[in-house]
Design brief:
Number of strands: 12
Distance between the termini: 52 Å
Helix content: 40-55%
Strand order of the largest sheet: 1-12-11-7-10
Structural class: alpha/beta
Oligomer: single chain
Low-confidence stretches: none
Largest sheet: 5 strands, mixed
Order of helices and strands: EHHHEHEHEHEHEHHHEHEEEHEHEHHH
Bound molecules: 5-phosphoarabinonic acid
Number of domains: 2
Strand content: 5-15%
Length: 462
């Protein structure tokens, strides 16, 4: 199982000004935490609560449909393009980067065991869009359009571009190259998919984008590139079992949520850095940033108190960012809590050859990159602690489907608990929707004319 070490936030190590007496705090909060966990589990099956993500690890039916379709199209496509943004893309990126062999898209078809290359189009940069579709053989390209709402501007614009290109290239057959993953009933993409006769998958009710990685949003792309989704489910289910425990001393998500909450509220640590020591986990940090930011960054609490809450999440990569961000983390404002992710066992043990023994780099010979990675992570943790900076560490036995399932589910649960501690709705995103509405107006969508005039007059002042 994933392990958690919070000794780096202890006030006995980094001092009272920056650290916490966790025995006292866990005792103080144990009843509130138990109530929060009980409440989440009680509400999870009720419609309208946004908590269906807690059941996704058990959705055997979705897994079955996803596997059935993946088997049907096996070997038919060389490329898989995912069109999605935010929660519809970040989980997919994080998991495929973690679980596929590095440089997947550069491997030959044989090396990929016949599975397609995978591309995520999660931005509307005109050059990237143009270049991607100019480069790919569209006949051999399967496109998965993912949008829960079914009318997100960026996604629908990309969809319109690719639909047109595919139709020009393939004639009437183009429909076989598009899959839509969207809401069961509502939204423009649902309507179009039914009219056009695309294969469709469902984003379940009460699952927000950033909590959707274990629904068809993530599972379908994973299965299409040969990732074992049962292994991921096993990790999610085992972690869910652990997190059902209402005892804070046994519940890693509750511990990390409370640590982050208290450090923000009591010690001014308004920044949460996630720093995995594994390139495979680089995009897990991206995914976490969206989860933490969009869920907790709120201007009103559930009881309608006006507030401006939320820790700013920052992604960093060990060891790369030791040569970029670490100077600031060590000596700049002491306003961060840093979460390290360490991997016990890498797939390869990459040795450094015993050469140049007569020079100052001779000491490296005969050691491994694995040892170097661990020594750098240890050094970083110790120096940060000497500088009174709070850190926690999550240990993954290795980067595989089982552990990724555990890790991501743990972060989701941690976020839900943190939302309850802050008293905010962790499952909405009004600040994102406001910008979408303004974009509709500026792009000339019917019904938004008045809003467009008001935005333009405000823009003239900016
Ligand atoms: O987490 C969220 O809910 C958001 O990031 C959405 O996923 C994102 O805005 C895209 O929305 P949609 O899936 O409706 O296109």
């Amino acid at each position: 199982m994933l392990r958690f070490d919070y000794s780096g936030v202890s006030s006995s190590i980094i001092g009272e000004e920056n650290g916490l007496d966790l025995n006292t705090e866990f005792d103080n909060y144990k009843n509130q935490i138990a109530d929060i966990i009980t409440d989440l589990n009680k509400r999870k099956d009720k419609p309208g609560q946004g908590l269906q993500w807690m059941n996704l690890g058990y959705s055997e039916e979705t897994a079955w449909y996803v596997k059935e379709y993946s088997a049907l199209v096996e070997n038919r496509f060389d490329n898989l393009v995912i069109i999605g943004i935010g929660g519809s893309a970040l989980g997919g990126i994080a998991v495929t980067e973690a679980l596929l062999p590095p440089y997947w898209n550069y491997l030959s078809k044989e090396e990929r065991n016949g599975y397609p290359r995978i591309f995520f189009l999660d931005n509307i940069d005109p050059d990237y869009t143009y270049s991607l579709f100019s480069m790919l053989d569209l006949k051999k390209t399967l496109v998965n359009v993912i949008t829960k709402s079914g009318d997100t501007t960026e996604i629908m614009a990309q969809y319109m571009i690719v639909k047109d290109l595919l139709e020009k290239e393939l004639g009437d057959d183009y429909r076989k190259n598009i899959i839509a993953t969207t809401d069961k009933r509502s939204g423009i993409l649902r309507q179009i998919a039914e009219q056009e006769g695309y294969k469709t998958f469902v984003v379940p009710d009460d699952v927000g984008g950033r909590f959707s990685v274990f629904s068809a949003v993530g599972l379908l792309p994973f299965a299409l590139v040969g990732i074992d989704i049962d292994e991921i489910f096993n990790g999610v289910k085992d972690m869910d079992f652990v997190l059902k425990n209402t005892d804070i001393y046994q519940n890693v998500a509750a511990q990390n949520a409370l640590i982050h909450y208290l450090l923000a509220c009591k010690k001014g640590k308004n920044i949460s850095v996630l720093m995995p020591y594994s390139s495979k986990l680089k995009s897990v940090a991206d995914w976490y940033c969206q989860l933490w930011a969009e869920s907790l960054g709120k201007s009103v609490q559930i009881d309608e108190n006006e507030v401006n809450l939320g820790q700013t999440p920052v992604k960093a990569l060990g060891v790369t960012d030791q040569h970029s961000q670490l100077q600031l983390y060590n000596e700049g404002p002491n306003d961060k809590i840093i979460t390290f992710i360490r991997v016990d066992e890498f797939e390869h043990n990459t040795e450094i050859p015993k050469i140049f023994e007569y020079t100052g780099i001779g000491y490296l010979g005969g050691k491994s990159l694995n040892m170097l990675m661990n020594s750098e992570a240890d050094s970083t943790k110790v120096v940060l602690s000497e500088n009174k900076r709070p850190t926690v560490t999550l240990y993954l036995p290795k980067v595989d489907g089982y552990n990724i399932g555990q890790l991501l589910y743990m972060f989701e649960f941690q976020t839900a608990i943190a939302g309850s501690l802050y008293g905010v709705n962790a499952f909405d995103q009004p600040g994102v929707e406001q910008v979408q509405n303004y974009t509709y107006a500026l792009m000339g969508r019917n019904g938004y004319e008045d809003s467009a005039n008001s935005i333009r007059s405000k823009m003239a002042l900016l």
